[in-house]
Amino acid sequence: MTPAPVLVFGATGTHGGAVARELLVRGIPVQALVRDEHSERAQALAKSGAQLVVGDLRDERSLARAMSGAAVAYAITTPFEEGAEAEVRQGEAIIRAAFEARIPWLIFASVAAAGRAEVPHFQSKARIEQRLRDAPVPWTVVAPSYFYENVIGSRAAILEGLLPLPLPVDKPLHQVGLRDLGAVVAAILDRRQEHLSGRVEIAADAPTLEEMAGALGARAVETPLDDLREHRPDLAAMYAFLADDGYGIDVRAVRARYPEVAWTSFAAWADDVDWDTNQ
């Protein structure tokens, strides 16, 4: 039986919102952790059936209160507001709050290859994972790869027939759609014992940049990393890693482990995107 309710962090964001919506579609009770319960996105979640719970990653007591009513917490941290060190502090606060609330299960959303990539926001997640392994809290780590949805940031270029990314055009890029990630989380919830104290890296497909562009009806363009290093050094480090070692996930094995997920290829996802609404 799926433990419930599930407290989803970052529920008004892209990642947490997608997981929350997928769980709700599957009839799993969701508590959505939000900073502002009156925001448009929070109210949309409430209309979808989520129970809104107010909390802030910078307020450990609010996290403990939020977790006290949940059977599972799906925890998401972010380095993109205040940096990688702040993300580690978020993770540590979540773990302490989980222990204080005696939550039965903490699922931490990390990133694939966190422990072996010289990327600041990968390393911060790896440090949180280590804290989690040392903590007296039942835990699981879910580590997705690159998201299909990341290309929506290049919408303007795609509409002009180009897909620019700082990757070789023939380099496979392991990826997963957010809806599929939500489906994997649902599958994990149904298989608690199998996943306790375990780490799962997730990818649904591994198209090359050229194949991605073809699926989008565009032309692949390898952009220089130097342009990114000047303004976004963290992302530049990530793309340098992806252009070299990459995630190295066995897609077939992941799909075989979770047959209950209706896996979506990048091409199928691209064909289904409404580029006018970015959905």
Descriptive keywords:
16% strand, Rossmann fold, alpha/beta, two-stranded parallel sheet, 279 residues, single chain, globular
Question: Secondary structure elements and their pairing?
Answer:
Blueprint: E1 6-8, H1 14-25, E2 30-34, H2 40-48, E3 51-54, H3 60-67, E4 72-76, H4 84-101, E5 106-109, H5 120-133, E6 139-144, E7 146-147, H6 155-159, E8 162-165, E9 175-176, H7 178-190, H8 192-195, E10 198-202, H9 209-215, E11 219-222, H10 225-231, H11 233-243, H12 251-257, H13 266-272
Parallel strand pairs: 1-2, 1-4, 2-3, 4-5, 5-6, 6-10, 7-9, 8-11
Notes on the structure:
- The longest helix has 18 residues, at 84-101.
- Strands 3-2-1-4-5-6-10 form a seven-stranded parallel beta sheet, sandwiched between helices. The protein has a two-stranded parallel sheet with strand order 7-9. Strands 8-11 form a two-stranded parallel ribbon.
- The protein has helices spanning 14-25, 40-48, 60-67, 84-101, 120-133, 155-159, 178-190, 192-195, 209-215, 225-231, 233-243, 251-257, 266-272, and strands spanning 6-8, 30-34, 51-54, 72-76, 106-109, 139-144, 146-147, 162-165, 175-176, 198-202, 219-222.
- Helix content is 44%, strand content 16%.
- Helix 1 (14-25) packs across helix 7 (178-190), helix 4 (84-101) runs parallel beside helix 5 and helix 10 (225-231) runs antiparallel to helix 11 (233-243).
- With 279 residues, it is α/β, with parallel strands linked by helices.
- The protein has one domain (6-272): Rossmann fold (3-Layer(aba) Sandwich), CATH 3.40.50.720.
- Strand 2 (30-34), helix 2 and strand 3 (51-54) form a beta-alpha-beta unit.
